[in-house]
Design goal:
The protein is mainly α. The chain has a single domain, classed as Herpes Virus-1 (2-Layer Sandwich), CATH 3.30.40. It contains 6 helices and 4 strands, in the order H-H-E-E-E-E-H-H-H-H. The chain has a two-stranded antiparallel sheet. A two-stranded antiparallel ribbon has the order 2-3. The longest helix has 12 residues. It is elongated and about 80 Å long.
Length: 146
Amino acid sequence: MKPSGPLTRRVPLKPGKGLQPSRKRMRQGKSTGAPTKAENARMRDAKFGLCIPCLVWARAGHMPETDVMEGGDYDHKKSGNLRRGHAFGYCACLWHHRRHPGDGWTFAAMRAHFGPSLLDGSRLFHDTYGDDDSLIQLQTELLGTA
């Protein structure tokens, strides 16, 4: 279809209203809403459970299972820098989640005994313990909510 002439607006613009950038700020917030009761229960139970990367490291024979840390942070996993949801996460001790060595431990000693931290590099972490989905699956199995 060939244009018959210049483009014109059907409804003229109001005075002072042109094509100006919006002055409204984008909504700030998290990429996921408030957790449901079931998701809250999962996060609470996981935080007081075993550290999943420690457990994988111990099952691979690198340390005794009695040394697996109990309690820690609930590590929410992301996809494209957006949280996948509150059900997509697992317990990670302070070493594996935020690279905080335990009292009296050096970074080298922690890494030798407990394995690499997430802050040592994502690729190294996932090569050592498995991808996020396998860690989430192990957490789900331990909680018995499969």
